[in-house]
Write a structure and sequence with these properties.
three-stranded antiparallel beta sheet, 19% strand, 2 domains, eight-stranded parallel beta sheet, 16 strands, TIM Barrel, alpha/beta, homodimer
């Protein structure tokens, strides 16, 4: 893997990340395909939307279809017929979300499957084994994600475990060869809760281990947004300039722009697809609920400034009807639109970084997002 | 509307049906878009699949979005952005399926909405009003569909009502102008249950009224398949040679081929999409349940002879996984494949009618459908 920051505009960065499955232009949003499918969106549609990399989830793919199936089928790229890069979350976040169903040990975590209650044990090495079977271009280490709020002591101990596991993942990557003949990078995850001193320590310890990229984990878990921004700004300052920076599980369009300004290169979030399936559509003039009666006979596209399949072909009135009558097509059109919104926002952000006017553009965009003006005028 | 039978091969017919929204080559299968969407399939995908005409349902569209919305939005073509022909079922079948919720009067039928129990009254004129608001290229008359089995007396009285209503629909079409500036044809529906004498009477009375096309209704409602074929064969012989013949709600791929051989031009059925959403996929070697464990690591396409997006890009193993984990993409890929199977079967049927070898080809196809050979070999 090769990463180059090709331009900076204040702290915002435009980069090029080269993988064996192709080049990714950063800043980038990565659509989430937890179980080997970006929900309600076809692979050819992801290409059409300009998706450059998607996410898979190690925990979910380990349970179904399972690593034997993935090995036999030649890895996730072949299995789902997606030839561009894939990043896999380690499953740590999902496992730690099963608060009643898991127990943390120094060597890993034991958990009960959310599907059938069967008992499983993830160690750092086991997670690398699974990620090798998946064949993701970017593998994430097993980490512990502390809850919000948590004590400083908890955050410190948790980070010690995360760093220990990161080392063990690094070792496992050296010992277990890739199965499919292409390079898989390993990214570490900086934790530390809301404690800057522990975030700094976490970053220092992980940077010393020399990973190919670094993620900021444990944010957007309930802390106030301003605090998240402050912690992102603080943490990116502890991160190497020449390595990609990935903010996990964040967030709204506003969050993305604010965090690009604070030096983040990569994002993922279920928001565009999950919101879409719940009839919430992102527009340049704010988020709208397309189920509302106000759209009943509206013959305008969801977002007049949007060039996606949905907006080029269908009206707010029709999409409202699809949600009213529970047609699957509603989920499809909403997911396509929201992903297009996120992906084109990142593309524009990159152009404005390259043009050295990112902050000004961001300000204009955020004002627009708040306005809802044009929608009300219709 | 213009209809020409361009070639016959024994009783099988290849025709051209010209509407204001374009030309339909018969025999044709019409995908069902009950509520203004062919379930889980995008409009551009319908075009890609070669769909030439789709169905909408008068009863469902009357309830939601309602005729006011349809009028305001310029009719169903504009509302759903489908520029090819649309046929609308009159809603008679749906209303009569609400056995506990409806009451038949000489002037029409009163029914309770399946959605909220609200009371509605459909007369022949009301149905035409709704179909004018929808703006379908082919409107079906309001009919009464007798149950199977039913007494000869019931079938006779029911047909008398159907013929009376057909006359009233014809009158209403003359009195109510189309809203959207294009021609809408009216097709009558031949009923009569399993009684040939009443089928003959129904056909005679309706043919005398000179409709633009004729449907055979009230079949595939529980009678044995052989009896259905016999009644189709008998009924088509009572129908004018130069008008399109539409067999409503039928059926399996086998049914379609058998009924083409008996002189039918048009078909509709929820089977390809509904079966698809239930993981049942049609192949040249029989229907398979893609959820079965036998496909777990199968890297072959669903049907090697198929050129659809699903078969060109995805394996049985992947599609099985999508159904296992309840991904919407599974419903999409299965629906696309099954519609492609039906539509390409009709295209091939037409070619073999034109080549004068329809019956021989049909025999080969039906043998293949029974074989499951190639699938088992894998």
């Amino acid at each position: 893997m090769k990463f180059n920051v090709v331009h900076t505009n204040s702290s915002a960065r435009a980069g090029i990340l080269e993988t064996d499955h192709g080049v990714i232009e950063t800043p980038i949003f990565m659509p989430v395909g937890t179980q080997g499918s970006v929900k309600a969106v076809e692979q050819r549609e992801l290409l059409e939307l300009g998706a450059q990399i998607i996410l898979g989830n190690t925990y979910h793919l380990y349970l179904r279809p399972g690593i034997d199936v993935l090995r036999t089928m030649g890895g996730l790229h072949k299995f789902m017929n997606w030839q561009k890069p894939i990043l896999t979350d380690s499953g740590g976040y999902q496992v730690f979300s099963l608060t009643e169903l898991r127990k943390i040990h120094p060597d890993g975590v034991t958990f009960k499957s959310h599907l059938d209650g069967s008992l499983h044990h993830f160690t750092p090495r086991k997670v690398i084994e699974i990620e090798r079977a998946i064949g993701s271009d970017i593998m994430m280490v097993l980490d512990e994600c502390p809850p919000f709020p948590c004590s400083e002591e908890y955050a410190r101990e948790s980070n010690a475990l995360t760093v220990k596991w990161a080392k063990e993942c690094l070792q496992a990557v050296k010992e277990i060869e890739p199965y499919y003949g292409f390079h898989q990078s390993l990214f570490a995850i900086i934790q530390g809760g809301t404690y800057k001193n522990i975030r700094a320590l976490s970053a220092k310890q992980l940077v010393d281990l020399d990973f190919e990229g670094y993620a900021i984990g444990g944010l957007a878990v309930g802390e106030p947004t301003e605090q998240m921004y402050e912690l992102v700004e603080f943490t990116t300052q502890q991160m190497p300039l020449q390595k990609p920076r990935y903010l996990m599980g964040v967030g709204t369009p506003e969050n993305l722009l604010e965090c690009i300004e604070r030096g983040v290169d990569m994002f993922d979030c279920v928001m565009p697809t999950r919101n879409g399936r719940n009839a919430a559509l992102f527009t340049h003039y704010g988020k709208i609920s397309i189920k509302n009666a106000q759209w009943k006979t509206d013959d305008q596209p969801v977002d007049k400034e949007c060039g996606c399949y949905t907006c080029k072909n269908f009206s707010r009135g029709y999409i409202r009807h699809l949600f009213q009558v529970n047609e699957i097509l509603g989920l499809q059109l909403a997911s396509i639109h929201n992903l297009h919104f996120y992906l084109s926002l990142m593309k524009e952000a990159r152009q404005h970084i390259l043009a050295d006017d990112f902050s000004q553009w961001k300000k204009t965009m955020l004002e627009q997002f708040q306005s809802n003006k044009t929608l009300i005028e219709n």
